[in-house]
Amino acid sequence: MDFESSDPPAAPGSHPQAGPRREDALPATAAAAVKVVIVGGFGVGKTTLVGSVSEIRPLTTEETMTQAGVGVDDTVGVERKSSTTVAMDFGRISINEELVLYLFGTPGQERFWFLWHGLFEGALGAVVLVDTRRLEVSFDVIGRLEERGVPFVVAVNSFPDAPEHPVEELRAALDLPASVPLVLCDARRRDSSRDVLMTLMRYLHSLAVTPEAL
User: Do 49 and 193 form a contact (C-beta atoms < 8 A)?
Assistant: First the structure.
C-alpha cells in the first residue's frame, strides 16, 4: 500500500532536507512509550492499519510478490494482492499528550515468522487482525501469542466481500476466552484503527489491575 508524502516539493536546484521531518519529532510532552505489535495472517490488513493510524510517515517493507512465493504462500482469498511485507511495518501514534504507542506490523506469511521473535521483544501487547474469509490463518497466530504470554485483542477487519458473523460466533470459532476483547474495525479508517488500539490499552490496564483476568 502506498502513502503519499506530505513533504513539499524541493525548489529547483535545491537539495532535499536531511534528517527527520519536523512533524515526525516526538512530542515534548511524551512521558511514556509503549511497543505494540500488529499481527495476523497474510493479507489481513496489517500494513493498512499501521498506515491509516500513524501520525508519522509509516515505514513499510513491502515488496512485489513474485513467482518465488507460488506454492509457498497461501494466497487463497487474496489472489489480487500484489505486494507483501517482508520484514515489518512501523508507525507511531500519540494516545494523549503523555502516552505514545510505537506500532510494529509483522509479516503474515509463515516463511517470515522467524522475524516475529525479535519484534515481540519488549512488546506490551498485540492486536490480532482477522479476515472472516480466512479465519483459519488466525489460529496459529493466536496460538503463538498465547504460548508467549503476550496479551492481545482481536480486531475483525471489514472487507467488502467478507461474510458477516455475530461476534459471539466469531469468538467461538477462534476459541477466544470471554476476557479477550473482540471488536469489528475498518483498517482503512484512522478513527476505527485508533479505537482498536484504545481497546488494547484498556485491556492492558484491566490486566494490570486484575492480572488473573488473562
Answer: yes
